[in-house]
Structure formats: structure tokens, C-alpha cells
Design a protein that fits this description.
Length: 200
Amino acid sequence: MKTLVTPARLPRVLLVAPIVVATLVTGGDPAVAAEGGLPQFDSAFFLTQLFWLALIFGTFYLLVQGVAIPAVVRVLDARDGKIAYDITRAEEKRNEAAALAAMIDDKIIHARDHARTILSLANREAESVATARLAMFDARIAGQVRDAERRVGHARDTALKELPALAGALIQEVVVRLGETTAECSQVSSAIEATLNEPV
């Protein structure tokens, strides 16, 4: 419901009220106002003026008290309620954000711990694999070294066995070329073999 008198129109109504009162008192007749000067100062009109003054200002008071002020109070209450609701919602959102941030921090810490555990396990596995491969390589190299030593020993033994015969033949050839004396190849070989077998 739209009111006729609003707080913005109240000063204009208060300015117009004396003119309305004077018009009602004089009945709109300028002769009455000109007779004895200002009629509002005539004691014959005091009761009438007081009656209309009380009626008009009482009506204004009731309008302001019953219409304008409750409307303003309702607006203020609605604004206060809206502000309180917004503050409550902001607090709830802030608490939710804080809880979400704490949860994210916990997840980050858990992820870091999990990553460290995985990295540690990977390092251990890599170390074990590297150790196993090194052991395998060491075993392979040791086998190859043993085979090489065996081949070298076999070649040395073979060379030592063939050395007296080769040396005897070489010495016999040298002796034949140097002189006319001949020597038995077997005797030379026996002598060389005996020399090689003598203790050092």
C-alpha cells in the first residue's frame, strides 16, 4: 500500500499546513482576514485553530508513527538481517576454505612422504640390481681370468715340454755349422732338460 505522506514530502506538508489552517479558519474570505488584521491572532479563532492544529499534526504524527517509521524500521531490520546473513555465509566460506586448505596441505605432505618412500624403495632396488650385476660381472671376469690362466699354464707347460727338443736341434745345428764335430740330438736334449730341472 502506497502512503500519501512520505518522509520526503513531510517538510512540504508542514509548510503548507499553516496556509490550509488559515484558509479553513477564514473560510477563504479575504474580508475576514482584512477586518482585524491577522485572524490567527484573534482570540475568537484560538479554539478553532488549536482544534485544526491538533487534528492536522495528530494525523501527521499517526501517519509518521504508523506508516513511515515502521517502513524505515523494516528496511533497517532487513538490511541488518542481510548483513548478518552475509557475515555468517562469509564465515562459513572462510571456515570451508581453511578446512580445504588444511586438507590440501595434508594431502601434499602425504604425497611427499609417499614419493620419498617410493624413491627410497627404488634406490634400494637399484642398488640391489647393481650389486647383483656387479657380482655377476665379477664372477664372469673371474671365470675368464681362470680360463686365461689355465690356457697360459697349458701353453707354458707345452712350451717347456717342447723346449729341450727345440733347443737340442738348434744347438746341434749350430755345432754342425761351426765345426765338423757332430753330436747326438737326444744327448743334447737330455742335457738341456737336466739343466732346466735343476733346482734354482
